[in-house]
Design goal:
Blueprint: H1 2-8, H2 35-38, H3 45-57, H4 71-82, H5 90-105, H6 109-115, H7 119-139, H8 148-163
Helix pairs in contact: 1-4, 3-4, 4-5, 5-7, 5-8, 7-8
């Protein structure tokens, strides 16, 4: 968690440039039965870090429809996928992808310029993330453990599915 939080700017050297980590975690990051999720395309890590920094700096809450998912929670979830040190679940993958969709959908022209995201890249990332959510939802087991991550992931997936 410290690596992404430092990259997002919670440390004393938050303005210092840092090398970009790989664009997406290795396939060993997913649960054994979900290795194919790690191979799906994701936005570049540096873009995700810029987006999270922007959200933190502007004190924005992109998740009005889901108060359990705020910027701090999103940073933690993104770290678990983009900087994976242990396997993550399908629910975490859905939370990250659906959360990033929510964040990208509300960016106005000024925010896109500040984050250096073109409209064509924005559209491509939203499409990739939406497709990732679709793939991950299809992999969900019929009987899920009742926990906050699973419930929030299903809630976000259904919410995004109705708006696609």
């Amino acid at each position: 968690m410290a690596s992404l939080q430092n990259a997002v700017g919670s440390g004393p050297n938050s303005g210092a440039p840092r090398p970009s980590p790989p664009a997406h975690p290795s396939q060993s990051s997913c649960d054994d039965e979900n290795q194919d999720l790690a191979a799906l395309p994701m936005p570049p890590t540096d873009l995700v870090v810029r987006l999270l920094k922007y959200a933190r700096a502007k004190s924005l809450n992109f998740f009005d429809e889901c108060p359990a998912l705020d910027t701090t929670a999103m940073i933690n979830y993104c770290q678990r996928v983009f900087f994976a040190t242990e396997p993550y679940s399908i629910a975490i993958f859905i939370l990250v992808n659906a959360g990033l969709i929510s964040m990208l959908q509300v960016l106005d022209a000024g925010a896109r310029a500040e984050l250096q995201i073109s409209l064509s890249d924005l559209a491509r990332y939203q499409t990739e993330l939406s497709e990732n959510v679709e793939v991950a939802v299809q992999k969900l087991p019929l009987l899920l453990t009742q926990n906050a991550d699973n419930i929030t992931a299903i809630f976000l997936a259904v919410g995004h599915r109705t708006s696609w």
